[in-house]
């Protein structure tokens, strides 16, 4: 099976159009169609359903897409491993983190990697923990920062940081609150993630069923924080998620009643995909950055 044909098939699937993919790849559309027919003949199954607006994948096409991505990634990692024999980190590294940490880490990490390891191409993903977990298992993410729990599956996990959770509100709203206790916390209007979000489960562990307090359910951190800043309610998050807004006096953080809940974050990679030299370089720089930011972000470093 031709690697170029597999790569082009992935482009078709992502573009959902033969013509768009042909334009991206810079190949004639009839030639691209012949490549698909060659793949279909080799596999003995149709891969695409053609529509007036583009194409969709058949079940066989979806299966091939998942396999092709893994194959192409393995080939890329093999090439990068050979290049890395010179003992200089080389190649792409995909790092994933929850939105609350990505906001604090990514703008600071990227310039450091570019300066110290110019041959490393850093790809940064900001997503919900569940999505990061699945994409790491699928081999799409090299390193991910996840909540530490017993359901990580076949991932190698190493402690990274622990951060206390607190009540987040507009600066004016937080200043107006009396001392925070469990009774007051149970009466405040809350803006929270949906029930499928790991942060929602953490919230429920703190306040119980929040249904009577919910103003809105939002799975977009920037939107949630804008609503909080506008005085629509409060949310429960770590300080790192609002560090920049707190410095500007837009949002404020109030510690929760003891025992203070905290989230334990680990750095993971798939067990069947040992980190490359480039991934090790990114991890080392990430850990240095976390240690430097710890006092400012109220982290306990593992």
TrEMBL record:
Keywords: Activator, DNA-binding, Transcription, Transcription regulation. Residues 1-58 form the HTH lysR-type domain. The keyword Membrane does not apply. PROSITE patterns: HTH_LYSR (PS50931). Belongs to the LysR transcriptional regulatory family. This is LysR family transcriptional regulator.
